[in-house]
Design brief:
mainly alpha; Hypothetical protein af1432; about 120 residues
Length: about 120
């Protein structure tokens, strides 16, 4: 049996408890919106993809040297689905050794990069 996706309010509360920087919060919300959009296009689970986008940089502000490992450990302890953990690990392959092979992984990776570029401009 697979783990259930926590509701969005719980995920947002988790984000708010970890992340204080307004710019980082905006980035994470933008990645969530982008992932939801691509999930719709591909007929995938918008909540699954959106939650990964929302929480992918959960630990970046507090534990940049441990990113994304610290956040992944917390999400695993909280019972987040393996697919979310996999996609978050794959968004930082140089830190985790997990390559973004699945469509879900590649979408999160691309949305993260694109959001960073758009925000910087």
């Amino acid at each position: 049996m697979s783990a259930e996706i926590p509701d969005r309010d719980s995920a947002v509360a988790l984000l708010e408890s970890w992340v204080e920087n307004d710019g980082l919060r905006k980035h994470m919300l933008a990645v969530e919106a982008s992932c939801r959009h691509y999930a719709r296009i591909h007929g995938e689970d918008e909540d699954l993809w959106g939650t990964a986008g929302l929480l992918h940089d959960l630990d970046w502000e507090k534990y940049p040297d441990e990113h994304p490992h610290r956040g992944l450990a917390d999400l695993k302890d909280l019972g987040y689905p393996e697919a979310i953990l996999q996609a978050i690990a794959a968004h930082a392959p140089e830190r985790t050794g997990v390559e973004p092979d699945a469509l879900f992984d590649r979408v999160l990776f691309a949305c993260d990069e694109l959001s960073g570029l758009v925000y910087a401009c």
